[in-house]
């Protein structure tokens, strides 16, 4: 039985890989994509999502544009890691989409898909959590229709935008706190600590590029992103943060998790957007969220390569 899946995203290079992994996996039924501000402007995140789905031959999947700004305070800026267009300047190498975004906004599409679903839906928010916070606030009666949220975000040991804050949580800490600190539905959080440890090498990218035309297109989107990680990590590797989260959706348990209570720092000081994880043994684990703490990186890499490498252009 397939897992009905909605991806909430801000493409983004690793978001493109995440969408491709979902499309390549028969275990999931990708029923919708919603977009949010983040790596680039809302206009570009939506356009990029449409282009990636066109590449994958999945233009049947509705795409709805969502939040253009955080819930409370203005967003200080967008990420430079993904290049000016979000795809290392190579968005135009993807097919021109044959259709535009859905007429509904992201929260309305989420509501409609949840209401129509015959069984609970998994949602993978892999950008700022604004759309999900709005959904839970506006439609609390639909919580039972969500199987779980598999969220990419946060850093247990530090951040990538500030010393404490990871990008997705930093973009909208108030929304992140609404979703993570007092969870109304089950949450699996995939933090950057794990996704960075599971970074793929340039040889992995070369193997993917040689596996298929779609693999080569995906790898063609990575130059700016790869250059960022060369600078940050000092090695020829690249973190596919969002694809790691989708891998956990497709193959539950590929990431090992532990339950911890969490909070998100929402002050306007230097700690803003930081993930606060209570790792004390005496903490009430039952009231926390599942945080991915480990994985067999070699197995994860093989799995992603097999799935992405098997993608073929639909005629």
CATH architecture: Alpha-Beta Complex
- Contiguous low-pLDDT stretches (5 residues minimum) are none
From the alpha-carbon coordinates, what is the Rg to the nearest angstrom? 18 Å
Order of helices and strands: EHEHEHEHEHHEHEHHHEHEEEEH
Class from secondary-structure proportions: alpha/beta
Q: What CATH first level would be assigned?
A: Alpha Beta
If you consult CATH, what is the topology? Answer: Inosine-uridine Nucleoside N-ribohydrolase, Chain A
Multimerization status: single chain
Per DSSP E runs of 2 or more residues, the count of β-strands stands at 12
Work out the helicity level. Answer: 25-40%
Largest sheet: 8 strands, mixed
Tally of DSSP helical segments: 12
Strand content: 15-25%
- The coarse overall form would be globular
Strand order of the largest sheet: 3-2-1-4-5-6-12-9
Overall mean pLDDT score? 95
Number of domains: 1
Query: How widely separated are the two ends?
Result: 27 Å
Any idea what the CATH superfamily is called? Ribonucleoside hydrolase-like
């Amino acid at each position: 039985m397939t897992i009905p899946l909605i991806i909430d995203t801000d493409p983004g290079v690793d978001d493109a890989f995440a969408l491709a992994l979902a499309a390549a996996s028969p275990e999931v039924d990708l029923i919708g994509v919603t977009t949010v501000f983040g790596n680039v402007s809302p206009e570009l995140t939506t356009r990029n999502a449409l282009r990636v789905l066109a590449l994958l031959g999945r233009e049947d999947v509705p795409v709805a544009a969502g939040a253009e700004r955080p819930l409370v305070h203005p967003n200080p800026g967008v990420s430079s890691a993904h290049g000016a267009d979000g795809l290392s300047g190579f968005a135009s190498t993807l097919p021109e989409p044959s259709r535009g975004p859905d007429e509904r906004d992201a929260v309305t599409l989420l509501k409609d898909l949840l209401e129509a679903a015959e069984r609970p839906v998994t949602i993978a928010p892999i950008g700022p959590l604004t759309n999900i916070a709005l959904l839970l606030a506006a439609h609390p009666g639909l919580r039972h229709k969500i199987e779980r949220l598999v969220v990419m975000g946060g850093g247990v040991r530090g951040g990538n935008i500030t010393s404490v804050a990871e990008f997705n949580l930093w973009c909208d800490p108030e929304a992140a706190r609404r979703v993570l600190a007092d969870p109304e539905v089950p949450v699996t959080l995939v933090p950057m600590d794990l996704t960075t440890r599971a970074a793929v090498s340039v040889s992995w990218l070369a193997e993917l590029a040689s596996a298929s035309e779609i693999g080569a297109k995906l790898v063609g989107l990575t130059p700016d992103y790869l250059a960022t990680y060369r600078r940050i990590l000092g090695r020829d590797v690249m973190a596919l943060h969002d694809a790691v989260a989708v891998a956990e959706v497709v193959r539950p348990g590929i990431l090992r998790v532990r339950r911890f209570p969490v909070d998100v720092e929402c002050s306007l000081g230097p700690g803003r957007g930081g993930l606060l994880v209570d790792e004390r043994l005496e903490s009430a684990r039952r009231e926390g969220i599942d945080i991915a703490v480990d994985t067999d990186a070699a197995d994860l890499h093989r799995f992603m390569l097999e799935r992405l490498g098997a993608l073929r252009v639909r005629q």
